[in-house]
Design goal:
Pfam families: Glucosaminidase, LysM. The protein has 12 helices and 7 strands. The chain is mostly helical.
Length: 301
């Protein structure tokens, strides 16, 4: 249903401001230290190899335990890359999927980062990833799991959670360490407003931002971000739902449960059904650190 701005403004008066769960979570200091230490290197590799800086940082965090794993500390291996038949460098042996597996050993972390980039660039199975936009971190995360980078069925979801929790997507557009640029006038654009299950929303066209949508429809940017439970600079992708009012505590019937797919996060699932993230965690008795794994069944009401 298409609504006029006048009707929208009346409906918005009755909306209640939500809570930005993701932005309020306490961040792990060792993770923040790791990001600060290696973000410039990840950005350089993005420019050189077209691998999203957010993906490089998230993989480094996940595979090395923010640089604290034994493999990272003793062998400078930050990405869990095994020897393989073509490796001619240093070697070290650790238990992984099997006992005593061979992993690559480097002189310093910079060598590990360089080898990680070449590992992805030089192997044909990862070629489809380089057809994606450098800002499509979700597509990259799903692709890495699909191409077999790791055996963990929740690998893509873990990467996406790290990227969104620590706002690593900002480094994909070189905003990670820079001050925020002055706001530009919003583009004049028209949105079709939909109402499903009692909630008003629009779809992102993939080229817009929360600022654009807010300016076009007469909302305050901070309200839209609260309704959608996202932090500052959260990037919209084509087809993303943007709610114009506070989400519900449970999904409407007949949505009783959801089977987790590759690349989904608790936030994306909550957006799909118009549920508040904290309610989704609570209904499923999950701690915030929980990462949905492909095949998991989550209650929606």
């Amino acid at each position: 249903m298409r609504l006029t701005l006048r009707i929208l403004s009346i409906l918005v008066i009755f909306s209640i401001t939500g809570t930005v769960l993701a932005a309020s979570q306490r961040k792990v200091p060792s993770y923040e230290k790791y990001i600060k230490q290696y973000s410039n290197l990840a950005i350089q590799h993005q420019k050189k190899y077209r691998i999203p800086a957010s993906i490089t940082l998230a993989q480094g965090l996940l595979e090395s335990g923010a640089g604290q794993s034994e493999l990272a500390r003793k062998s400078n291996n930050h990405f869990g890359i095994k020897c393989h038949s073509d490796w001619r460098g240093g070697r070290v042996y650790h238990d992984d999927d099997l006992r005593g597996e061979c992993f690559r050993k480097y002189k310093n972390p910079e060598q590990s980062y360089e080898d990680h980039a070449r590992f992805l660039v030089d192997r044909p199975r990862y070629a489809p990833l380089f057809k994606l936009k450098v800002t499509d971190y979700k597509g990259w995360a799903r692709g890495l799991q699909k191409c077999g980078y790791a055996t963990d069925r929740a690998y893509a979801n873990r990467l996406i959670k790290l990227i969104e929790d620590y706002e690593l997507y900002r480094y994909d557009t070189a905003k990670g360490g820079a001050s925020k640029p002055a706001k530009q006038p919003a583009r004049v654009s028209k949105y079709t407003v939909y109402r499903t299950n009692g909630l008003l929303y629009v779809y992102s066209n993939g080229r817009d931002s929360f600022d654009d949508i807010a300016a076009s429809l007469g909302f305050r940017v901070k309200d839209l971000k609260k309704y959608n439970e996202v932090p500052e600079d959260f990037p919209l992708q084509k087809g993303d739902i943007v709610y114009l009012e506070k989400k519900k505590k449970k999904a409407d019937k007949p949505n009783y449960d959801h089977v987790v797919q590759v690349g989904e996060s608790m936030h994306s699932i909550a957006q799909k059904y118009g549920i508040q993230i904290k309610s989704l965690y609570k209904m499923n008795k999950k701690h915030y650190d929980y990462i949905p794994e492909e095949g998991d069944v989550l209650k929606l009401r």
